[in-house]
């Protein structure tokens, strides 16, 4: 008797990431051990979900060697990672505008004013967490989650705003993770997947 290959696994629903999730600011904003959101620093409500990518750059050390096959696995090296999180926000405040501008300051005399600057400061870099529901057990207690931690994030796509008649204003931002000179071997993105439980 032949096997039917078009059946989905019986545990499919326990491995689906659902809904748009949220973005949190701060290295300690989320605890992946407990699944607890520690900080209420949600960057903003989004439109169209969140996009996250982490793409390695490769170097083929056999590329210029005579008679060496292209992409010989023993001669391939990773030279770096390009890790990003992007989204479109429908809510903003002065803190999120400052973050989207990469290098900017909130005016000390006028708390409603954000001014870009030409010099980067260490405080401009901030970790970002994406946290989304995962599996059929995603209640408040012991819920499943998919979490992505972008380290040393900095807005790399610039500030972008679009308004429309009878529509919400849309603020688009892209954040890139950066390697720290103090931890040069640490890739600036981490991933966590936890199945929820009924307990």
Distance between the termini: 41 Å
Q: Any idea of the CATH topology?
A: Pnp Oxidase, Chain A
Structural class: mainly beta
**CATH class descriptor name:** Mainly Beta
- The whole-number mean of residue pLDDT values reads 92
* Total domains: 1
Largest sheet: 8 strands, antiparallel
Order of helices and strands: EEEEEHEEEEEEE
Fraction in beta strands: 35-45%
List how many beta strands DSSP finds.
Answer: 12
Q: Indicate the CATH architecture.
A: Roll
Question: Given the structure, what is the number of helices?
Answer: 1
**Low-pLDDT windows of residues:** none
> What characteristic shape results from the CA principal axes?
globular
Task: Please estimate the helix content.
Answer: under 10%
Describe the structure.
With 199 residues, this protein is mainly beta. The chain has one domain (12-55, 84-194): Roll (Pnp Oxidase, Chain A). Helix content is 4%, strand content 42%. The chain has one helix and twelve strands. It has one helix at residues 94-100, and strands at residues 17-25, 30-31, 36-37, 46-60, 76-89, 104-106, 114-116, 126-134, 145-155, 160-162, 170-176, 189-194. The strands form three sheets. Strands 1, 4, 5, 8, 9, 10, 11 and 12 form an eight-stranded antiparallel beta sheet that branches. A hairpin with a 7-residue loop joins β6 and β7 (114-116). The mean pLDDT is 92.
